[in-house]
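Internal ticket - ligand job 368, zinc ion:
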Amino acid sequence: MEPDYSPSSLTIDLGPRSYRMHVRSLEGAPGLMREAGLDAERCFVVTDENVASLYLDRLMEALRAARFTPEAHVVAPGEQSKSEAPLRRLYDAALEWGLDRQTPVAALGGGVVGDLAGFAAATLLRGLPLVHLPTSLVAQVDSSLGGKTGINHATGKNLIGAFHQPVLVAADPEVLETLPQREWTSGLAEVVKHALIADANLLAFLREHWAAILNREAGPLPEMIHRAARVKAEVVAEDERERGRRAILNFGHTFGHAIEHAAGYGSFTHGEAVAVGMRAALFLSRERHPDFGGDAALDLVTRLPVRGGDPARLSFEALRRAMQQDKKNEGDAVRFVLLRAAGEAHVAGGFDDDTLEAAWQFALRSGD
Ligand code: NAD
Ligand code: ZN
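stdout (structure tokens):
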């Protein structure tokens, strides 16, 4: 049965840490903050230069209209802002400006801003209320939900962090208009992933509206964002601390992370690597579950653009080595998220190297 469908908001059900996500205009966010019980006078806004030039004034004005006294801290765009020096500068700016335990931190931006500001909110004064105002597709359907925050370390991504749930998420689909096209299609990979692992209706919706979605036509976007975010919300509600079920969000990511690693970070985007990884994961799903046709799933996955060059330049051997390092491994076995059917995922291992190589060859062939 379809749960009650309301395209404008949904609940992330985490008991005392529950919160709502609204799909609504940016101007409405400060009012939603008041409704969520944030009654502080001040608000510390974190954003990056790209987003600041487009949307910061609008947010600051709306915050003032809702009787907040806002202060903005702008970081450089890009993954390098998820690191120690920018975090320290953020701490300095926030503490010099003046905070108390009630002061909300509002993250206006993509996943980088959300992870950085979220970690600052988790740690400043032992925890400040966090509001996510996600502006990238990845942030709207994925990173703003679930409470993972953190920065990178020289030895790896996201190694320093904390779980810190926001008190509110407000996503405005209209701001996605200005997102660079490659960021858009990379985010779509995660949307497709959410459909495949947990929402066969979303899969049908995406197939029906795919041309409009690729072109970012406004029509289908609010419903797409709402449905994709709902998948994340439901998985997180079942497994807040990633002890089990939450691992299904890594569909396509075993090969995907290996592709990013083997190609060198920055050649394929994360979403592009995941798109290719999902082709391999669909091959393995069909090996394990011969009754799973998967044609609709494969059709959608192979329509995700991959612009970082030809994946065929990566050797299976390099990928196999990178997969051995994957964090989901228990002992020596490489683990994968598989589909039993569209919308039904589970974690499994036990594939031999020949099968994995066949999956890789399939991933390369099916992209043509
Ligand atoms: P990002 O934050 O770097 O944003 C991508 C680019 O788009 C940036 O240059 C940004 O300035 C720009 N941008 C953002 N919104 C825009 C808009 N509306 N208009 C124009 N430009 C805009 O990258 P991302 O893909 O949003 O997030 C990736 C990060 O998120 C990674 O660090 C990843 O580790 C993290 N992440 C975290 C979680 C989590 O659960 N916490 C989940 C997934 C990803
Ligand atoms: Zn991902």
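Auto-summary: The chain has 13 helices and eleven strands. The first strand starts at residue 9 and ends at 12.
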